[in-house]
Amino acid sequence: MTVRSLTLVGVTSLALVLLAGCATPAAPDLKAEAPYCHRNNKGRVQLCTKGNAPSLERDAEAKRFEPSPDLLTVYVVRQAWGEAGHPLDVSLNGQRSFETVPESMLRLRLKPGEHKLEFQHDGRTYSTVVRGTAGQVVFAGIAGTDWAWGSSHRWSDEAPEKLKQRARSTRLVGDLLDA
Fold first, then answer.
1. Cα(97)–Cα(90) distance, integer angstroms
2. What is the reported pTM?
3. How many CB atoms lie within 10 A of CB 49?
4. What is the pLDDT of residues 47-81, one digit of tens each?
5. Which CATH code, of 1.10.3720.10, 2.60.40.1120, 3.30.450.20, 3.30.300.90, is assigned to 29-177?
6. Which of 1, 134, 142, 165 is deepest in the core (most CB within 10 A)?
7. Each residue's pLDDT tens digit, 109-120
8. Distance separating alpha carbons of residues 150 and 127, to the nearest angstrom
9. Nearest 5°: phi and psi at 160?
């Protein structure tokens, strides 16, 4: 090899190394709040929340499932393998409404007692009541499937441990502290 060939190989190698550094994505900002986008099994974005989801830091903190000493903590989990991209708004006691998308969850820290959760799908209203005392953690799941010939959703009757396990693979999209 000549000096010219070695120089060309060296410059080309250096350029490739420098360009590889530019191709590395930046680490996500753990404190940033931004819309959450649900992706299908091929990684394509199907649906994003209209509002900002809590930060990744709060998402990780919520997934510790720690109770609030003076409040009832309710997790609403929406995670099912056959669900496609459409939002469901979950209302709390007929007042506040929280948007969910597939593979998402809500954390609601509420005054102890009884609370009504509702969502609507295909013209029907689905309701459930959650009850609990201060320091208690309760789970409510939304089960759903979407097929070419129709879709269905309902409140899940899965055990709390199963819903907790499902919640670990979701994204926190709503976090309420109602103290």
1. 5
2. 0.82
3. 20
4. 899 999 999 999 999 999 999 999 999 999 998 76
5. 2.60.40.1120
6. 142
7. 999 999 999 999
8. 21
9. -55, -40
